[in-house]
Amino acid sequence: MNKYALAKMQLEQLLDEATNQGLKQGDVIEALIVLAIQQSVELRGAEDTKSYLEYEVSSIGSGGVHEIQRR
Predict the structure, then answer these.
(1) Residue spans of beta strands (DSSP E) within the chain
(2) CA 61 to CA 5: how far, in whole Å?
(3) Is residue 12 within a helix (H) or strand (E), and if so which, with residue range?
(4) Is 23 left (phi over 0), alpha (psi -120 to 50) or beta?
(5) Whole-structure pTM value
(6) How far apart are CA 59 and CA 10, in angstroms?
(7) pLDDT in tens, 33-52
(8) What distance in Å separates the CA atoms of residue 49 and residue 24, rounded to the nearest whole number?
(9) What pLDDT does residue 69 have?
């Protein structure tokens, strides 16, 4: 299993639980993004985190955020 398959599986479980708890899935995604960014800064540092986030954000609308990583 690769890192994207693992993350997708966990995200699907999280969204199912959000629905079960009566929470909006978009709100839970927002919280997850915030927490993931905070954790990434701790693990990878602010500059590395900022760099890959800028790259991913610039890819929005161009066929998928992690298009390059899928190749």
Answers:
(1) none
(2) 21
(3) helix 3-20
(4) beta
(5) 0.79
(6) 23
(7) 999 999 999 999 999 999 99
(8) 27
(9) 55
Between 64 and 61, whose confidence is greater? 61
Task: Measure the CA–CA gap between 70 and 66, rounded to whole angstroms.
Answer: 7
Residue 62 backbone phi and psi in degrees, to 5: -115, 25
Please give the Cα distance from 47 to 42 (Å, whole number): 11
The structure tokens 């390059």 sit at 68
* Cα angle 37-39-44, degrees, rounded to a multiple of 5: 90
Where along the chain do its domains lie? 3-70
67 vs 71: CA distance, rounded Å: 7
Written as six digits, the tokens of 61 are 């609308």
CA 65-27-1 angle, to 5 degrees, is 45
Residues in the chain: 71
